[in-house]
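quick one, 197 residues, struct below
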Amino acid sequence: MKIKSTVFVKSATKPSNYPESQLPEVAFAGRSNVGKSSLINTLVNRRGLVRTSSTPGRTQLLNFFDINEEFSLVDLPGYGFAKVPLAVKKAWGPMMRTYLEKRPQLRAVVMLFDIRRVPREEDLELLDWLEEFEIPTIPVITKIDKISRNQRAAQIKPILEATGLPLDAFTLFSSLSKEGRDEVWERIEEALELADS
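---
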């Protein structure tokens, strides 16, 4: 994927706020602090397109970005961070579910898992929703540079067990070394092409 332009379009919380564009969309989802902003910035070669924060739980809206005037990338709110206010936590589920269920432009969701963490209830709930709405899922295991290559298999095993997904469903990714970047793009392009065919 050659990135010619990346433009922030708008933030939204409900369908009446969503952009009116008919471009196909690929959304990115994962727990707070899973490395979602870093992954998106690495994919589009823009250091500050999506603001990375040392404070998890910062993304609390649906953020829409136009890529090459060809498709939209949607940064979904991170979840599972203890210090986020209860009202925000409660709003997360309905906001996400509504977007996943009601957005016909949505072609796939890139779902992130931290290699150092076992998936929890919210992760599995989101996977269930994606299955329920028959949305193609691109699972990515992030932060692989945080552990040694020898430790990878042991760290990945509980993720496979919790999600029930096979190893080859996942792309291993590092924003530091950019390992996995091309593979994530390939899977996104495949999802966009399948939807158009």
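The longest helix spans residues 86-102.
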